[in-house]
Amino acid sequence: MRIDPGTRVFVRLNAVACSVALFAAVIAGRAALDVVKTDAGRIAAGPVKDGVTAFLGIPYAAPPVGNRRWRPPQSAPKWDGVRRADRFGTSCMQNQPGSRLPWTEEFMTQGPIGEDCLFLNVWTPAASAAARLPVMVWIYGGGFNEGSGAVAVYDGTQLARNGVLVVTLNYRVGALGFLAHPELTAESPHHSSGNYGLLDQIAALQWVRANIRGFGGDPGNVTIFGQSAGAISVVDLMRSPLAQGLFARAIAQSGPGLLGRNALGGAATLRDREAAGVRYAESTHAHSLADLRALPANVFFAATGGRADVPRGPFNDGWVLPDARPAKQVPLIVGFVADDIGIGGSAAAASNTTIDSYKNDAGHAYGEEADTFLKLYPAAADDDVPRVQKAAARDRARVSMDVWASDQVNAGARVYTYYFDRVLPWPAHPEFGAFHTSEVPYIFKNLDRLDRPWEPVDRTVSETIAAYWTNFAKTGDPNGTGLPQWPAHTADGHVTMQIGPRVGPMTIADAARLQFFLRHLTK
After folding, report:
1. Which of 44, 47, 119, 123 lies closest to 84 in space, CA to CA?
2. What pLDDT does 308 receive?
3. Following DSSP, what letter does each residue of 176-242 receive, concatenated?
4. Residue 102: cis peptide before it, omega within 30 degrees of 0
5. Dihedral through CA 223, CA 227, CA 232, CA 233, nearest 10?
6. Which residues contact 8 (CB under 8 A, 6 or more apart)?
7. What are the b/e assignments for 292-303, b being 16+ CB within 10 Å?
8. Which of 189, 258, 369, 439 has its CA at 20 to 30 Å from residue 363's CA atom?
């Protein structure tokens, strides 16, 4: 396949006109949905902005406190009267650094945290409950240790203007979300424990199935999308029999094929995680499940920095996640950003590496093939090392994603892959490049949430990627009028969609580098 290197993104008047016409049709004669009836009670709308009504802080399950700590989520208690939905609910228990470069405050959880945290938020552009618009349910990242549906860059207002409903949710993280323990397994009718955060996500999707029609959404046309740990969650929901039928499409950003399942506990067995849970419980001086449930919630997030034994992440427990995946797979978009790989979410960490350490690292990583690697990515001086390391990391990540996507295609899924390489403009910190999570404000069209020297290309990239995402949510195909054609993945094509200042198909690596990483990654 010949790739045109001159392909560029331009503002396409016909695409803009179509988008404006679609949105005008959605909100024509709009009267805001003031009160919506849910299965737990009636809720009053929150803020209305740019023709989109927000319903914030809706409880989708009972508070997981007391004896409900480390149990599957239960139905939300019913209420009388009309509950206001004008502010976010409490975020789940976690450590709150406020910011952690490269992630500034807009990317991080702010506001109150607590155990009573199973809330979700809905942004709807619908004029009435009869609109039957597609629904996009966002699942946050944060390493299964932190995150919230109330994070500023996840605000759904602008994305909803593309003619979709946007839902964000909270789910339990850290030990409160993923502790397995023999006593927990013994009290479970399913003989399982540990995947409570994933069960929260499933409960939220069940809430969407039961209630979203009242907000103008189509419960039969739901797309789940998430980033990092949220992307791992997306793929796990695709595997879980408990989530089957709750969504029609999926988008996984910077997760599968990039973050190994082993790193997030996915390769562990229930017995492994139970044993780890006992050791963890002992570290908190709790000698029984009753002791654990009596501890204050903040104990499970005190002094956790750097501890490898804190329970986190889904794993194959035999109930929520069995070993076998369902035969039928939903259409999927999967991809990553250019500098996902590296400390702090970027490839900047290599800046102090010498040639000697570079060669030593290559030997550890590639063994007898290290000489081949060093010929493919040569460095003549210390100053060359950051550049070649970044090139190698990007090539390896694209090939890894390609291998992973080919496995899904061979299993019967329709897959679209992408590589996002627009560097978020940040004169104070150019070293972070296109860092992990930096594509999220573009997708949600929330550039104005960040104080950055935006350029016209940033607005165009944001409109483009948001159009691809919402087209996919509507039809299962990201392509649409005025957009560069995005080909579906094929197992032998070795092509992905580049999204950034240039938009169009690109080869994932040159032939020699491709074959090197294919050999290495498929061993």
Report:
1. 44
2. 62
3. HHH---HHHHHH-TTS--S-HHHHHHHHHHHHHHHHGGGGTEEEEEEEEEEETHHHHHHHHHHH-GG
4. yes
5. -50
6. 501, 502, 503
7. beeeebeebbee
8. 258
* Lowest model confidence (mean pLDDT) among 11-15, 184-188, 247-251, 476-480: 11-15
- Phi, psi (rounded to 5 degrees) for 373: -60, -45
Question: Which pLDDT tens digit goes with each residue over 49-67?
Answer: 999 999 999 999 999 999 9
- Which one, of 21, 10, 196, lies nearest residue 117 by Cα? 196
Is residue 214 within 8 Å of residue 129, measured between CB atoms? Answer: yes
Domains annotated on the chain, with CATH: 15-70+111-330 (3.40.50.1820)
Helix 385-410 to helix 355-366 angle, to the nearest 10 degrees? 20
pLDDT tens for each residue of 366-405? 999 999 999 999 998 888 898 899 999 999 999 999 999 9
Helix-helix angle 196-211:229-239, to 10 degrees: 70
- DSSP 8-class letter at 301: G
310-333 residues labelled b (16+ CB within 10 A) or e (exposed) = bbbbbbbbebbbeeeeeeebbbbb
Residue where the block lists tokens 């189509």: 218
Cα atoms in the 13 Å half-sphere on the side-chain side of 158:
20
Q: What is the CA radius of gyration of the chain?
A: 23
Whether 138 contacts 168, CB under 8 Å: yes
Q: Which two tokens stand for residue 287?
A: 């000698």
Given a contact cutoff of 8 angstroms between Cβ atoms, the answer to whether 473 and 394 are in contact is: no
Q: Which amino acid is at 96?
A: Q
Q: Is the dihedral of CA 186, 187, 192, 195 positive or negative?
A: negative
pLDDT of residue 129: 93
**CB of 192 closer than 8 Å to CB of 240:** no
Strand ranges, E, within 262-368: 332-337
- What's the chain's length in residues? 523
Sheet holding 133-139, edge to edge: 48-49, 52-59, 119-124, 165-169, 133-139, 217-227, 249-253, 332-337, 415-420, 495-499, 504-507
* Short-list 505, 510, 508, CA closest to 494: 508
Q: Give 483-486's long-range contacts (Cβ < 8 A, gap of 24+).
A: 483/12, 483/15, 484/7, 484/9, 486/416, 486/418
